[in-house]
Amino acid sequence: MIAPHRRDVVHMGYPDETRERARELLAGGMSCRAVSAEVGVSHGLVWQWNQRWGIPLLRGRTGGADMGVCPVVAQEGPRPSPRARVTYAERVLIADRLRHGRSCRQIAAELGVAHTTVAREVRGHARGGRYDPASAQRACERARSRPRSRRLDLDPGLRAYVVRGLSLGWSPEQVSRRMRDDFCDNGRMRISHEAIYQALYVQGRGSLRQELAVEQALRSGRTSRKPRSRLPERRGRKSWVEGAEISLRPAEADDRAVPGHWEGDLVVGGATCLVTLVERSTRFLLMSRLDSHDAATVADRLAAMVSGLPDALSRTLTWDQGVEMARVADFEEATGFRVFFCDPRSPWQRGSNENTNGLVRQYFPKGTRFDGVGDDEVAEVQDLPDGRPRKTLGWRTPAEALDEVLSAGAIQS
What we know:
By secondary structure, this protein is of the alpha/beta class. It contains 19 helices and seven strands. Helix 11 packs across helix 12.
């Protein structure tokens, strides 16, 4: 003989009238314990019957037939805030009041919440025209479960694009904004730069960072901005600076609307160095390696670097007050450039060049000696920042921005 299933055992030995009576009492809001005493069966059996019927239960000994305050709600006390989450006890009360024909506004007034909270709860969890507090509670717990799956983990295509951009040295914001241009018709290929930072540093102990072998998001490694110097200006005898202060630079160089204004500096590595020149309006980079950085060598190399530029791209150069520019007159005479010098300890006056030097340091970290670096490698690294999308350029690359300037006819050779 085959043993009966456990679900059938709970119905054996009891007349249909007993079970129907228990069902009516439970549906009327009576508690399992009260129904047990009324129909003469064990409390546990009534509870098992109700599990199969799926009738919402009001916990406690009195049940909810009196239409007063829900016992569990009363036990939990007043709501901490009208904006607090709906609890399971409140969901049971909502189901009970709906069975008795109460409106959402009446239920909300009893619970002390906005009527839209109750309406949204009922509308979001009603199945077949019936609101079930148990399934609503389970759905709420699933929605609150942590940790949540990240989009970068769920979408291989999205993750591959992010990995590629970060591998090229792009910042998370550059990756995020460039994605909008590259996939303008694909709404799935969207992710915020903050989500990328979370994947780099928070989620899974930085699983994305481990995949990329990236140690930090900020090139400088700082977690906050470096304050500007408030030290008083030191007076020194620098004859090449007199009459070429940055305050005398043409106003057209300040707003970056006119191309041809450059910023420059040396990236020093031992006795050797790199010369970096950055065009202010397009952020285009020119870079060259020097075996020494005395004034005569620097002046000659600068003249060679800008010799192929159109006249309209040869307007001004902004530099710091370093002694390497002591022969600035030779450079100006050879090229037609006007050179202006920043105030002491004011690198932000060459902001574009400082930012670009930070990009260069990603490939040539501090401590690199450039006597072991070839010109081909320098040229390759120069192309990387020029092919990197920039927020200030509307997520175009400096190379694209310079091409647009040249093709628009703004620059004539």
